[in-house]
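Fig. S4 source data, part A: sequence.
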Amino acid sequence: MTIRNMKPGDWPQVREIYEEGIATMMATLETKAGTWESWDMGHLSKPRIVMTEKEKVLGWTALSPASGRCVYGGVAEVSIYIRLSKRGKGIGLSLLQEMIRQSEQQGIWTLQAGIFVENSASIRLHEKAGFRIVGTREKLGRLNGVWKDIVLMERRSRKVGV
C-alpha cells in the first residue's frame, strides 16, 4: 500500500468512496457527492491524500477551511473516508497520521472533525490519532428529516502555532 498526494485523476475513485460513506448515513449530512469542481472548491488544495494498492484508492483524506476569516487560517476541518471493504485494516489511522504531518507543514495548527454521535468507530479512530472530544453539537443538521447530533473533535499541533 502507498500513501501519496491526491491527483485530480483520482476523483472517480474518491467520489465512489465518498458515495459509499454517504450511503451509510453515518458519515455526512450530504446526500450526494456532487462534481469534482464543487468538491475541489470546497477543500484546501493541500494536503489531499490517498492510500492506494495497485492504483486502487482504498481511502482518502482532505481538509476544508474552518472559516473564511484569515485569523482562522491555521484551522481546518478534516474529512476521511475509507472504502467499505477495507475498513478496520489501519488505513484510516495511517491516513490521519499523514494528514497531521502534512497539515503541519502547511501551517495548520488545529484540525477539527465533526462526527455523528453514533459513529463510534470514527470517534475512536480520531482519538487514536490524538484528537479529543470538545463537545456535542445537538441537532446541528438533518439527514433525511432526522436531526443529527455531531461530536466536535479537535487536535492541536504541538509543532505549529506553539
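Fig. S4 source data, part B ends here. The longest strand covers residues 132-143.
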